[in-house]
Amino acid sequence: MKAAQFEHHEPSTVDEAVSLLESLDEPTILAGGQSLVPMLRFRLARPETVVDINGIDSLDYLREENGFLTLGALARHADVENSATVADRYGSFADAAPLVADPQIRNRGTVVGSVAQADPKGDWGSVLLAHDGAVVAHGPDGERTIPADDFFLLPYDTTLAEDELATALRVPTPEPREGSAYHKLKRKTGDYAMAGVAARLVFDDDGRIADAGIGMTAVDITNARAKEAEAHLEGERPSPELLEEAGELAAEESNPESDEHGDASYKERMVDVLTQRALADAAERAGVVERRVPQ
Amino acid sequence: MTREAPGTDSSRSIQASRETAEQPPSKRGVGTATKRTDIASKVRGTAIYGSDVSRPSTLHAAVLRAETPHGTLRTVDTTAATDCDGVVAACSRSELRGFFDDRIRHVGDVIAAVAATDRETAYRALEEIEYDVIEHEPVFDAATAVQAGAPIVHENQPDLKQHRQHPIEVTNEEYVNNIDDYHAYQHGDVDEALNTADHVIERSYTTPRVSHCNLDTHCCIASWTDDQLHVETTLGNITQAQEELGDFLEIDHDSVEITVPPTPSSSFGGRSLPKFTFEPVAASLSERTGRPVRLEFPRDVEFLAGETRHKTEWELTMGVTDDGEITALQTSVIADTGGYPNGVGHIVLSNGRDRPLDMYRIPNYEYEGVSVFTNNVPAGEYRGIGVTQGTFALESHIDEVARTVGMDPLTFRSRNLLEEGEDRSNGRGPIDTSGVTECLERGQRTFERITDDRSSSSNELVGRGVALGTHTTGSGAGDGRDVSEAELTMRTDGTVTAKTAGVELGQGSDTVMSQIVAHEVGVPPEAVRVERFPASAALDDSLGAVASRSTYLIGGAVRDAGTQLSSTLVDRISTALDCSPADVRIDDGTVHTDRSTVSISDLLEEEITVVGRATADDAPASYGAHFAEVVVDPGTGHVDVRTFVAAQDVGFAINPKMVEGQLEGAVLHGVEFAICSELRADNGIPENSSLADYSVASPVEMPNQLECEIIESAERSGPYGAKGLGTPSLPPVAPAIGNAIRDAIGNRITNPPATAERVFFAMAGRDFDEEVPVDE
Amino acid sequence: MSTDSTGDYDGPVTEEISVTVNGETVTAEVEPRLKLSDFLRNECGLHGVRVGCEHGVCGACTVQQEGRTVKSCLSYAVQADGMEIETVEGLAEDGSLHPIQEAFHETHALQCGFCTSGFVMATKELLEENPDPSREEIETGLADNICRCTGYQNIYEAVERAADRMEGGE
User: Where do the record's region annotations for Disordered lie (chain B) (predicted)?
Assistant: First the structure.
């Protein structure tokens, strides 16, 4: 079965894209298309018009500037995977990129597109939440920045307006004693997450946790933060017992459903395990504790 | 996940075995890893598969498929669909030719079908069909379906090949409804033996419904010329397929001609026989429209209507002595046939019954098997039919029994193995050639060499397991009824055309046949062209490319023809050169005598045609001993198969590189059966009918280190000593992995696949089945 | 099946595209919804682009677009307008097999061959990025391609052999 007929628009600037979004009737934005193309093929979506942003060269970047790591809307998963900056300083991004789908999909699919798609099983939303990141959007009234905490509403639904284009996402550059990590469990290679956890830890000079961020994948209706676990960590020194407690709290905060990926009770246990592992890696990368993988 | 550097090249161990194996009588062509003859077009991308074939004025079909598992169609209105632009015919189920009645028996069953000028129009027209179905109570659990009072799937037991294979007499009073097939057998006195045994171990095992996932989706083109039906479709067993299709469509067998596309694609049993909702639908639409009709399965329909491996439930009770001697085995199995039979329930059950007796000495034995219609998607043939499931149950059980007795599982097996020349416990003749002892010894040696220097960290659980497996070659009867013929024609240019009933499905049969001809006649393998003879030919063949019989039986016919061709050729040449036939040597297409060296084409004035024949008077058993090492993540339950050694007795390796490829492919299908794959269903509706949701083994799931040990036991009845390989190499894989998981976590997963979730709960000591019903 | 009825069919809207396929420029009027895989198979006659799953899981339809491998069933032909596409049919030069194709041939890295085009193209990118990959890098680099026949071992061997050959300056 083919997709239903649609019109194809190819703007070359952000402004042009925004005015198309404003004037067209229920347009759909096509970036990497690695999720959208199958959805159209199975007619899970039937847009009348598709605004293809691949020709907007100004959105094709990944850079550190003004205290942020910023990814333009055409930065592909593979760009993150191959970035030396990311490899050096952003453990959670470096962990997550090669775990997204498979090499060819990573060549084509975009990070911003994945976040804007807002599939609760997507990996990047959790990383963005753990880092207190934000989505940059352009609309008829210009640019606005939406904090990650205010971005996700429901599965496949965000606070982006119909006529807004997500042009970038950004996270603050790391503090001196910061580490982050992402752990993901999946049924098989290339699969979406059965459960995933992104963790970021910032330590003070005293070796105590000054700031903690935990984002969870596929265990709630959207990518979600484990706020109680974060709060439990802050002000404490990392220890296996502390990480176990945080894992348990995160598991309690998660709301997984049973589906083809696994039973809810299993996913909840995995949130516990993955949280501990991601926190342990984050602490190690911050240079605060020696490596220890919890069971 | 830990990764190992690639291991030593397994070809080295093949070489080692070759030194000890008896050399074949002559030395050209067979026994060497020649290049495959079918590869050039495949690597260039120019091969034409079923899905690439097109013909002029062909119509495209689409099928409206049931979304409910059980019901009776009251009305099907195709008027609006017929009126769509581009639609040439729209038929309700009852308007299709043959056995189609008004009953829907599984999700994906046919309600109506459309033929149109293009595929999209055909699919669009399906939306215009209105129908009314009276839903019936469905039944999904085979053990329930066979009881009295269960909903009946087939009102009249269908006469669809199955019941002609053997008389069925059901002696179990509890088995009343939906019986597809039934077998009961016993020898000795099992009750008495169990009463007096030192240990009696009883356990249940379940194996999942799985799909072949052949990448090339089903595609056929049907056309009629007068009363003659022609279907182009990839099928391995063409002779039987023509009969079945004729029966189904209620036309003469001779009126059905099946041909395969230029490049048939993989089967693994999934393309052995026709499917009710496939070829007959295209044939009906073609008859209705008078034009060729092409029907292709979308990927999701592959899972609904493309057949699956029978889901089975086993109960095994074994009696043993303190010193590890098996005194009795009682086995019962219930197999889920799904909504339609395809004539192989008999094979599932008879393999379950007979294979343990090809391996072990079991003086007291009782077996009962039933295959049962349900409203699940249909089951059919899948590599290692019945024996894959039965071997999982038996070899898992033997592992448990050995542990109970306190014996090493390998020693326990050795203690009870049948030896070469020893009669089977059921009185059926002796085992002729069995390389099983050598498989065990060589496999164990290699496995220990690879795994001995391994240290494991505290964060991983490591386990090791072994399993044996056996399967007979060919249809298994060994009664001389399975026959194959081959025709060889040498042209005056020195090339040879071989016509056989083989179908090159990727298993390499064309290459093997060309090697055999080259070997016997003395021409280069490239000078041999292998073709399929049409069913209308005067040549005989019973089953085609199924049941691991290609090399053994078709190869036997080619070898017979090759020896005839060789002697005729030598006679002609000696006459032409006026020398003694004994002085003629032909090598690589060149004739050598004491006096001259000339090419065949310079001497041959008329082409030579000969016909060779082989009959399966035996059904030699092939054996394998497989060893697995797994690493389990204690936090998540994830299983990584780190090391695998497959030691397999193949009789003789005509092409060692292709043997290795078959073994490695078997390991893939076994690995996914053990830890990945399961077609799950909710009320008969498959939940994961896409390649995104259904797990097959990717490179990552495969063992990090895989070695094949090829054992050559020189089977008396096979060409050069060869016997079956494709089927026998699969069954030991999954139980070896299952036993390794048992070793790692101290608990057994009796219902594969051993997904991370199941292993996690098994480690936690929870009964997974109580927590989450796997099916229904 | 998941078909739904609408009256949205007003006849096709088409765009003209110009794509360089295996070095030759192909100009065609296509519907925006035409997938690149269908364009290559049906408009260009390149059946070596195999379609196994239609939604980006099996890898049989892998081609190179502007030098990067992509699954051609996951993009539209209009998105390739003005770009260069290479398929498996474009690899052989003057009839001689590319070293990767040669290596697949020699090592029996295929059986039924349906997945082969995709594996050959994925190998091309793998070796372009990493001329001397380890076994693990090969495994993960080819993880998006499914083969049902070989168990992958001979495919790894082919990649290693091709790497040796291409390193050698062939």
Answer: 1-37
Q: What is the mean pLDDT of chain B?
A: 90
CB of C2 within 8 Å of any CB in chain B?
A: no
Q: Is C112 an 8 Å CB contact of chain A? A: no
Tell me the ipTM for this assembly.
0.94
Pairing type for strands B326-338 and B364-373 reads parallel
Q: What is the CATH number of domain B142-205+309-387?
A: 3.30.365.10
**For the structural domain made of B50-137+213-305, what CATH number should be given?**
3.90.1170.50
- All structural domains of chain A with their residue ranges: 7-55, 57-172, 178-285
Q: Name residue B116's beta-bridge partners.
A: B60, B87
How is residue B628 written in tokens?
Answer: 């697995």
Structural domains for chain C: 15-90 (3.10.20.30), 99-167 (1.10.150.120)
The percent of residues above 70 in pLDDT, for chain B, comes to 92
Compute the average pLDDT of residues B631-639.
96
Model confidence, pTM: 0.94
Count the neighbouring beta carbons within 10 Å of the beta carbon of residue B268: 28
Q: Are A190 and A82 in contact (CB under 8 A)?
A: no
Could you tell me which CATH number the domain at B432-473+620-771 has?
3.30.365.10
Give the fold, CATH level 3, of A178-285: Enolase-like; domain 1 (3.30.390)
Q: How far is B56 from chain A (nearest CA, A)?
A: 22
* pLDDT tens digits along B191-232: 999 999 999 999 999 999 999 999 999 999 999 999 999 999
pLDDT tens for each residue of B728-741? 999 999 999 999 99
Which top CATH class is B478-615? alpha beta
Contact call for C69 and A103, based on CB within 8 A: yes
